[in-house]
Amino acid sequence: MVYSAAELLKLQANIKRDPDGYKDEFALQYRHYKACLQLFQLKPSQDSKEFADCITFIAQVSKCYPSSSAGFAPELMQLLEEQQARLDAALRRSMVQALILLRNRNQLDPALLLPLLFKLFRVNDKQLRELLFRHIIADLKASNQRGRNERLNKTVQSFLYGVLADDNELAAKKSLAVLSELWRRHIWRDGRTVNCIASAVFHKSPAVMAAALKFFLGQDAAAADGDDSDDEDGDGEQGKTVVVAPTKEEVYKATQKGTKSSKRKKQAKLKRVMATLKKHARKEAALGSEGFAALHLLHDPQGFAEQLFGRLQGSRERWETRLDMMAVTSRVLGVHKLLLLNFYPFLQKYIAPHQRDVTAVLAALAQAVHELVPPEALAPVLRQLVDQFVHDRARPEVMTVGLKAVRELSLRCPLVMTEELLQDLSEYKRFRDKEVATAARGLIGAFRELNPALLNKRDRGRGADLAAAPASYGASAAAERLEGAELLEADLARGGAGSGDDSEDYGLGFDGSSSEEGGSEDEGSAGEGGEVEGEGGSDSGAVESEGAGQGSGSEQEEDDEDEDDGSGSEHGSDDEDAAQQQQQLGSAAKKQQQQQEGSLASLKKQLAAAKAAKEQQPQDGGGAEAAAALAASVPIEMTRILTEDDFRRMRCVVGL
Predict the structure, then answer these.
(1) What residues have CB less than 8 Å from 325, skipping those under 6 apart?
(2) Tens digit of pLDDT for each residue in 466-478?
(3) Average pLDDT, rounded, for the chain
(4) DSSP alpha helices (H): ranges in 185-218?
(5) pLDDT digits (tens, 9 = 90+) for 79-89
């Protein structure tokens, strides 16, 4: 019995409600599907509308009868594998949608389905390729959402190496788009993905090569950022208007004009616009680092740079593509500090003011320069740059570009600059054009820090350190200890904050804080004692003066004769006052200790007292001196674990 499309939909709903009651009807339709499959294999060009309806029906209800429909998915995959180009477009999409439905219900292993879907990129069907692209991205995102599915990722990535090396441009380009989108969405951020994309740089198709180059330059992320499905900026029209910054008039109206309610609405709108602007700025800032992050994961950067430069030398591609090849090569050389000495003479022939996109060429030159490049290899390039850009007959904007390019080269490789050339360029600081003079002053300011000895005496500035000079080519200093640790050790020796022996508590902060708190409490108690002592002294002085006023002359004479006895009595009274003051201080300290008993401060004081008692235990004199000498000779980072507070203090001492 043959059902129409409407009847199949009704039967499909009934089967989902009661699978056991409609088991015979499903068996009948499954046999009908088998008959249509055999007829289609005999004559693939016939009308396939009925066959497509059967496939959709079986895919919808297959979860109700898993044993009966076990061979359904393998038959569809085999048919697509063998006759993908001969199938009708509508039937092919119906079969792919049926397989996607089975995969979404976990009735099909993604490791079996995804390679077939990548092969279908070869079919000249744009709607099908868009369907496959969306499903592959969503499926891999769902598979790696809870945790990385390394087995699936390795299987698909190994298969993609072959797809990207395929001669079919459509399949390679769409597979490359899948990899780039997975990288951009932070689904695949590993070295295998980057090296798989790097293999596409050497594809014989210029379109595939250009797409791979744009990935390493971060331009593909900028192009795809507008149609990101995860973006929440709203519709396209709103996205175009919110990137415009508010004018001064709009800000004035939102804050000064209108009623309170209208001001509130305008200010809320202004706040939303500013938030969107900040979000857009963050995205643009993040796009620039995408390509650099990928370049760090290349397995063989030297081989990649050499192979790409070899293709660049004999390339007859468009100028834009060759410019991208220059940019990627220079970035690889700069990021990994590689040596490719033939690259600089190659760029030298493009260094001319009339050259198209000469600023991009100069940017590529600056990116490829680092401190490991021999100055002899860069000297001809620098001379070409100065001769072509920096002279009196050049236009001011050309001279500005040349001076800025010279400054960037000198910052990356200071040894390439000579004293004669630098003094010649520094004379442009009084040039009539302001931008040229500013660029010359920028070059002078850079060498005030790099190598002041190369400058004229009047250009060095006050307090110039003539001993400051870049290290010779190839010189390197091996670090023997943590940078800044000696500054921390010296500061602790001077009695800075946090000083104390932390070798036993491993930087937990008990000893330093307890000593500081104990010191502050002792100082407070000493201050109280000073006040009491001053009061006692003033009282005793008043009593003595009062007694002296009431005494007679004979008593004064007796005092003069018995001066020694009088002084002894005064010392005795002072001792009694001191004993009373000590008793008062002891009672006050005891009361304060009772009040703070059980607090963190009291706990720290107890720990400090216990440690002090441990240190005061009798030791051998020679052994103690030897231990102290050994502790003084061992670096601080070897005796205890440095904490975050130590590193913060080190940064403060260094001035960072």
Answers:
(1) 213, 308, 311, 312, 315, 317
(2) 888 888 888 877 7
(3) 78
(4) 191-199, 206-217
(5) 999 888 888 88
